[in-house]
Amino acid sequence: MKQSLGARTLLFPTPVLLVGTYDEAGVPNLMNAAWGGICCSQPPCISVSLRKATYSYGAIMERKAFTIGIPSEEYLKQADYVGISSGRSVRKFEVAGLTPVRSELVDAPYAAEFPFVLECRLLHTLEIGLHTLFVGEIVDVKAEANVLGEDGLPDISKIKPLIFDTSHRNYHGVGPVLGQAFSAGKALAE
């Protein structure tokens, strides 16, 4: 029998999304955000929810753009650092030893070291409560050649993205392939 845990922010898996923005002075900033994911297929969009108190909130509202970087396992410390410090008081790219790259398509930076990046222009905002949901139209996806599969698409086992455990506040990696989506369930219909 299931036990009630109450209304809580528990969901598995939760991606680690690194939000790239420029502040008013054009200083690049990164923020670790766990509340987000793909929210529309056409146009391709991603959502990320931020508190108004975050430095990135104001930057997105001002610049109408952001990037989403997907850090690989080797950048766990850097990904965590940009989530526990504020761009108001430190230059996170410098402290984390990351290289800011200016997007050619949107007014936001991303870290050169992260193998997979989404460049987004702000499409919608929705005040929900403590958080504001930002919907960004994905204007381009950039991936390092070494994380692409033979089909030219990103390979999750090569990206090795971080996954956040919302209940215990731990980071995890991805496991082995268990089955083919949109195919494994067909055996039940036979």
TrEMBL record:
**Highest taxon listed in the record's lineage:** Bacteria
Q: Does the keyword Flavoprotein apply?
A: yes
* Transmembrane region(s): none
**Native species of this protein?**
Pelotalea chapellei
Its needed co-factors are: FMN
Q: What is this protein called?
A: Flavin reductase family protein
Q: Which SMART domains match?
A: Flavin_Reduct (SM00903)
Report the SUPFAM superfamilies cross-referenced here: FMN-binding split barrel
The entry's family comment says: Belongs to the flavoredoxin family.
Q: Which Pfam families match?
A: Flavin_Reduct
The reply on keyword Flavoprotein is yes
Q: Which UniProt keywords apply?
A: Flavoprotein
Which intervals hold domain Flavin reductase like?
9-153
PANTHER family reported for this sequence: FLAVOREDOXIN, FLAVOREDOXIN-RELATED-RELATED
